């Protein structure tokens, strides 16, 4: 045999002997157990990651649902506020119109009362002037005793009729 074949044979013998020693001490079992343990840890980590992913999905869905509900509630609040503002505006407008009508009616009543007083004052003044004029005319036309009596009766009668 030549040296290269011998060298290959020695190398192979050394390799198989080394592998046999390793197998004898259970190194392959330990490597397999370590790999199995590592695979189990990876599987647990994957399960944990999946659980966290599912939990995150649920949280996201819950958040989106809450956000949608909040938007709906905000829209409802805005709609109610607009309705309330519109209703309050109409009520204020109606109250203002009612107040204006009451004040106009009161002003008209005051004007009518002042007009009635003015008419009464004018009538009273006219009656006084008429009585005075009638008294002067009757005084001139009637004699002294009959004139005084007639004047007094006429003045009382005119006052009674005008007032």
Characterise this structure.
- This protein has 163 residues and is an all-alpha fold.
- It has one domain (3-162).
- Helices cover 96% and strands 0% of the residues.
- The protein is built from 3 helices and no strands.
- It has helices at residues 3-24, 27-141, 144-162.
- The radius of gyration is 62 Å and the shape is rod-shaped.
- It starts with a helix and ends with a helix.
Give me some keywords for this one:
163 residues; mainly alpha; 96% helix
Structural class, please?
A: mainly alpha
Which bin fits the share of residues in helices? over 70%
C-alpha Rg, in Å? 62 Å
Please write the string of helix (H) and strand (E) elements: HHH
Helix count equals 3
Q: Tally of extended strands?
A: 0
Overall geometric form: rod-shaped
Mean pLDDT: 85
Distance between the termini: 169 Å
Strand content: under 5%
Low-confidence stretches: none
Assembly context of the chains: single chain
The major β-sheet equals: none
Question: How many domains make up the 3D coordinates?
Answer: 1
């Amino acid at each position: 045999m030549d040296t290269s074949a011998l060298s290959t044979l020695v190398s192979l013998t050394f390799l198989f002997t080394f592998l046999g020693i390793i197998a004898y001490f259970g190194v392959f079992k330990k490597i397999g157990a370590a790999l199995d343990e590592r695979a189990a840890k990876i599987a647990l980590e994957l399960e944990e990651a999946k659980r966290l992913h599912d939990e995150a999905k649920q949280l996201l869905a819950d958040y989106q649902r809450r956000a949608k509900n909040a938007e709906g509630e905000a829209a409802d609040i805005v709609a109610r506020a607009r309705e309330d503002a519109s209703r309050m505006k109409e009520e204020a407008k109606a109250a203002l119109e009612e107040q204006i009508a009451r004040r106009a009616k009161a002003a008209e009543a005051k004007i009518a009362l002042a007009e009635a007083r003015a008419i009464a004052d004018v009538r009273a003044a006219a009656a006084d002037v008429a009585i005075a004029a009638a008294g002067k005319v009757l005084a001139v036309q009637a004699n002294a005793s009959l004139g005084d009596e007639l004047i007094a009766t006429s003045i009382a009668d005119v006052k009674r009729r005008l007032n």
